[in-house]
Amino acid sequence: MDDLIWIFISALLVNNFVLAYFLGLCPFLGVSGKLETSFRLGLATTFVLIITAICSWFLNTYVLTHAPYLRLISFIVVIASTVQFIEMAIKKLSPALFQSLGIFLPLITTNCAILGLAIFATNRGYGFWEGLIFALGAGAGFTLAMVLMAGMREETGINEVPALVRGTAFNLIIAGILSMAFMGFAGLFSST
Amino acid sequence: MATLSNKMNAYDEMLKGIWRDNPVFVQVLGMCPMLAVTNSAVNAIAMGLATFFVLVSSSFLVSGMKAIIPKQVRISIYVIIIATFVTVADYTLLALFPAVHKELGAFIPLIVANCMILGRQEAFASKHSVKFAVMDAVGMAGGFLLAMFALGSVREILGEGKLFGISLFGENFEPWVIMILPPGGFITLGLLLLLFNWVGERRKQFLAQVAAVD
Q: CA-CA distances (angstroms) from residue B15 to B8, B60, B123, B143?
């Protein structure tokens, strides 16, 4: 039980996917303009991460034991198609939920955080529950980073920033400072 | 004459990736590997070369097979082609340079998720002949490699006072440890982008002045 809690906290704060591992930077820099949108994107990503954890555990346990060199290809194909199926199911069953997540779902599949999660979980030999909690922590950490970033970008939007600095360069420097703040959590837990 | 202009074009396709359309500094693609493994120049170059191999081989294969790839499922096919070459690169690195492979860890498989590679297949290789596709891939991957090296060397010099493991400043240098940690990656890339913007802006102003004088 203790282990599970630590896995969650580690993925949420200490080894935050975005700010310590640089995974999922494309949406982090691209879609973090508005608070509302980034929160939704965070939720959708968490959802896909959980599906990924389940798929990759299944593949690792039952399919890939004899053919580890097919891991990468099968991860990508299985995760992408599962997400596509679930997207169709959501569209059919709950149009409201589809409206709020819909546009992002297919894009998230190509997000490196998704594949990163599957690879990290495999490399660390996580079991089913550990993998699930890891996905939950990573998703929550991603959402947290997105929301913090969007909040700061909304603030900078109303202030005067020199034209040359505006855009990605500025966002990267904000992200650097945010990442520095998150390093303060490193004392909580020795990184593995 | 026709062959000459053809040749010129092919070189142009290659050169644009290195400066004018640099995948990292101008298009801001492929950020994840860019930041994660550039804490030393050697790692940065290893990652850049792995990406180079994957991008050039998949561009070659995609443009060669473009006639037989069905339009509707093209993206999945590109991804599978890319994943195959990444697996090749991963295992080759593991066999030849186990130490580097260990340093780069999970980030070699993550080359698959580098949006620059898929982007080149969709935007360029699937529409052009093999020769142009390979030239374009060489240019883009070269630009990526250069950017990786720029970031990796700055971070290693400031963060450890070394370049390729050779000490540069002697004993008295106090390393800026932050530069080899994650925040240093973000900040260095931010500053490099800023420099790139500034140079571009200066050039634009200069050209405008020249035009005004004329």
A: 10, 18, 17, 9
pLDDT at B1 over 50: no
Q: Read off φ and ψ for residue A67, nearest 5 degrees.
A: -140, 65
**Quick one: which of B205, B36, B14 has its CA closest to B111?**
B36
Which helix (H) or strand (E) segment is B162 a member of?
strand B162-163
- Report which residue type is found at A78: V
Nearest alpha-carbon partner for A25 in A178, A185, A183 = A178
Domain ranges of chain B: 13-213
Closest residue to B110, CB basis, from A29, A115, A169:
A115
User: Å from B26 to nearest chain A CA?
Assistant: 10
Contact assignment for A25 to B31 by CB distance below 8 Å: yes
Among candidate residues B70, B58, B67, B61, the one with its CA nearest the CA of residue B119? B58
DSSP string, A7-36: HHHIIIIIT-TTTTT--SHHHHHHSTTSHH
Choose the closest CB to A115 out of B113, B178, B183: B113
Extract the tokens encoding B189: 């890339």
Q: Name the band, by pLDDT with cuts 50, 70 and 90, for residue B53.
A: very high
**CA–CA dist B87, B101 (Å, integer):** 13
For A186, B10, B17, B190, B202, the CA distances from B5, given in Å and listed in that order, are 58, 9, 19, 38, 31
pTM score: 0.82
Give residue limits of the domains in chain A.
2-185
Closest-CA distance, A79 to chain B, in angstroms, reads 12
The answer, yes or no, to whether residue A172 has pLDDT greater than 70, is yes
- The neighbour count for residue B172, using CB atoms within 10 Å, is 6
* Interface predicted TM-score (ipTM) of this complex, two decimals: 0.79
The continuous run of DSSP H or E covering A55 comes out as helix A35-58
Interatomic CA distance for residues B194 and A128, integer angstroms: 44
Query: Across the interface, which of B110, B184, B186 has its CB nearest the CB of A116?
Result: B110
- What is the end-to-end Cα distance of chain B in Å, rounded? 32
Kindly give, in sequence order, each residue whose CB lies less than 8 Å from that of residue B213, ignoring residues fewer than 6 positions away.
Answer: none
